[in-house]
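re: that chain from earlier
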Amino acid sequence: MLSYKVIRIHRQFDPANIRLVIFDLDGTLIDSRLDLVHSVNATLRQIGRPELSEELIASYVGDGAPTLIRRILGPDAGNEDLVRTGLEYFLTYYREHKLDYTRPYEGVMEALTAIRGSSNGSPRKLAVLSNKPVNPSRAIVEALGLGEFFAVVYGGNSFTTKKPDPEGALTIVRETGCACAEGLLVGDSGVDVATGRNAGMWTCGVTYGFAPHTLEAAPPDVVIDRPAELTELFSGVRNKLEA
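^ sequence. v structure.
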């Protein structure tokens, strides 16, 4: 395996050939951990259940709100009435509190600026593909001043399937006029890596997000520890490769 001093390369590619970069949202672009934790625990209190730890809740995030609610219900995940009640309350509460503490990770704005730069003579296209519902996803992106960077923002209810199904990624590829081999999917979980692979794209895993442990079972092509390393990767400011 080749690696930079910090950036780990499992499969070599040339960033200059990447024309499309698709980002996960939670745990990749934004630190939404506290708002999600507070919303989950508010939901548990509402349905008379004990609160869960921040670490456990964070490990449940990434596969969409319905799956999140089933996970926090544990043995009662098959109780459809309880799932529906919990999901409705969670979405209502989160809609009102989604920006209490949520912020872009340090270095994200600079990374997006660098990535959007020229790719072999033409600007790169950037997009967001989240398993979070599309309305709060778009509202958060706009409220945090990230909207100008993205051609499209899609959520977990934008398509008939969610990540890791490649439907969303392939739709973005078609809409932006790029090829799958020219695309890179950036995310903090094995779900994101699987999505990129299923779409025939390159993959980049970030370890500062919610589920870095899930990257071990399905290593992405590139692994970074800080958003600033995306800037390095795409701006050509690299450390010396090591065997």
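The two ends are 7 Å apart (CA to CA).
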